[in-house]
UniProtKB/TrEMBL annotation:
This is Probable membrane transporter protein. It is found in: Cell membrane. It holds the Pfam family TauE. Belongs to the 4-toluene sulfonate uptake permease (TSUP) (TC 2.A.102) family. Keywords: Cell membrane, Membrane, Transmembrane, Transmembrane helix, Transport. Signal peptide: none annotated. The chain crosses the membrane at residues 51-70, 82-100, 106-122, 164-180, 237-258. GO terms for cellular component: plasma membrane. It is a multi-pass membrane protein.
Amino acid sequence: MMGVEGMEPWMLILILLVGLCAGWVDAVVGGGGLIQLPVLLLVPGLSPLQALATNKLGSVCGTAVSAATYYRRVRPDLKTALPAAVCACVGSYGGAAVASSIPPELFRPLIVLALVGVFVFTLRRPSMGEYERTREGHRRHYVIAALVGTVLGTYDGVFGPGTGSFLVIAFVGLLGYTFLQGSAIAKIINFFTNLGALAFFVPHGAVVWQLGLALGLTNCLGGYLGARMAVIRGSKFVRVFFLVVVSVLVVTLGYTVISDLT
């Protein structure tokens, strides 16, 4: 199995820099996987399943640090986040189990349409996510949170790109959190989705450990810096950056869909 010692130095440096950038973006609004995974797919000798599994190892390190940073500074609602995270972890494990048998081409057109909808929905509601309008304590609130965790956890295990962004908009748009609180909760859930996928990938020997741990170090630094930036700048900054990231996701995945058709 490939390790970092078998890679060209420029490729390793590129991967580490991408990991830093992905960790930062992921900590603010999610979407870091769309930066990180394509670069791993370029590594010679790395299968798509190994790339997906190694990406999860790097991401779990970054999301652990960003989730801890958010928790210390924002104090997200754990009564909502933790049950949803457990559901997401189970969903992600199941999604990872079928990841190798479902072509990504089946998902991309639907994800592009969903992201366009998210972009328009957010753009047309400029005050959304600025003030908290949650209904904590109501059963419906926790049921929706658990369903969001299960569905997006499964998606993250199967495919992944944009999971963090979908989590943010779900907790802001459906449950009434601010963008800062939504990002904090999303990071806790995203950590568990990465953990659930790894619970499947590790026993199957799909993780390239040296590469994944090296990636994890830069993800940690990026995750810490991104979470701190989001906390300092607040919900308005997170909302604007969220729209930017969703736009990039739409363009990137849309280009891939068009390329597949031609």
